[in-house]
Amino acid sequence: MIKSFWDLEVYQRTYQLAMEISTIAKKFPKVEAYSLASQIIRSSRLIATNLSEGWARRTYENVFKQFIINSLGSASETQTWLDVALNCEYITKEEHQSLNQELVARGQMLTQLHKKWKTI
Fold first, then answer.
1. What pLDDT score does 33 carry?
2. Does residue 120 register a pLDDT over 60?
3. Which CATH superfamily hosts domain 29-119?
4. 89: phi > 0 → left, psi -120 to 50 → alpha, else beta; which?
5. Which of 5, 37, 4 is nearest to 22 (CA)?
6. 74: buried, middle or exposed (CB in 10 Å: 19+, 13-18, 0-12)?
7. Whole-number pLDDT of residue 18
8. Domain ranges across the chain
9. In whole angstroms, what separates CA 76 from the centre of its chain?
10. pLDDT tens-digit profile of 59-72?
11. What is the DSSP letter of 59?
12. pTM of the entire predicted model
């Protein structure tokens, strides 16, 4: 039974992914601390944050769905920052592929939540 956003599997997984990305981004060169690292950390955290904020407004269907769409946008933004990190050689191809696959999978979960949120 889902009683709060903490119970949503997609929230749990996006939060965990954000923590993983934060750990990786903290290893970027110091020169990137206030640019790429902060951007990728921010966007990855917004995926879960938008879900929790939207959950608080779930009685308003269109508002909740907009927060899910915002989460999807943050996931896409994070993918772009991962591309930049790869091209700057701050992450390996394997890290990029793994994180990108996770983001794609979380995006699919978010899309399903958007479609079926009233049945959860």
1. 87
2. no
3. 23S rRNA-intervening sequence (1.20.1440.60)
4. left
5. 37
6. buried
7. 98
8. 29-119
9. 8
10. 998 999 999 999 99
11. T
12. 0.93
